[in-house]
Amino acid sequence: MKSSDERPPSKPLATSSVVDELDRLILQRLQEDGRVPFTQIARQAGVSEATIRARYRDLTEKGVVRTVGVVDPYALGFQAPAIIGVSVEPGMVDEVARKIGALSEVSYLVMTLGRYDLIVEVFCRDLAQLTNLLVQTIQTIPGVRDTEMLMIARSYKLTYRWAPALEAG
Questions:
Q1: Which of 15, 52, 101, 167 could form a disulfide with 38 if both were Cys (CB 3.0 to 4.6 A apart)?
Q2: What is the DSSP track for 26-86?
Q3: What is the pLDDT of residues 65-111, one digit of tens each?
Q4: Which domains, ranges and CATH numbers included, belong to the chain?
């Protein structure tokens, strides 16, 4: 079963062939305000709303942009965020990642090359839930060799306005 926020494995894109100046403007405006009307973007760009709508559809189909509602876990009472480094038995990373990725507390999961095979970000309501998640759930998944939990004490930056420095075509 695939949730709506899962993505296929990352693959490099030739950015110059994927986006142009108009696409960059659309992306910039959507990052500033995900509900900005296409008519406003069209007016700023000097093109028709239909052009913006078509470009947005193309960017979505190419996987360049996804429009989602972002929820603040702290505002909902999730006061025990953590990053968990997971070391996995050889050949089992994908299987372990599937199991960890299915956990509702997991907000971010990546495979890394380094000390840990997987890095997991989780949001739990309290320390008891976080402890149970780590000790009773993640550490008991077949193939998990070792874990290290880093509790998040303070967040200095959390942004969805990431914008790569794209070379002009």
A1: 52
A2: HHHHHHH-TT--HHHHHHHHTS-HHHHHHHHHHHHHTTS----PPP-GGGGT--EEEEEEE
A3: 888 877 888 888 889 999 999 999 999 999 999 999 999 999 999 99
A4: 19-61 (1.10.10.10), 73-151 (3.30.70.920)
Q: What is the pTM of this model?
A: 0.72
Give residue-wise pLDDT tens across range 109-124. Answer: 999 999 999 999 999 9
One-letter identity of residue 34: G
**DSSP element (H, E) containing 109:** strand 106-111
Q: State what percent of residues in the chain have pLDDT above 90.
A: 64
Q: Tally Cβ neighbours within 10 Å of residue 105.
A: 23
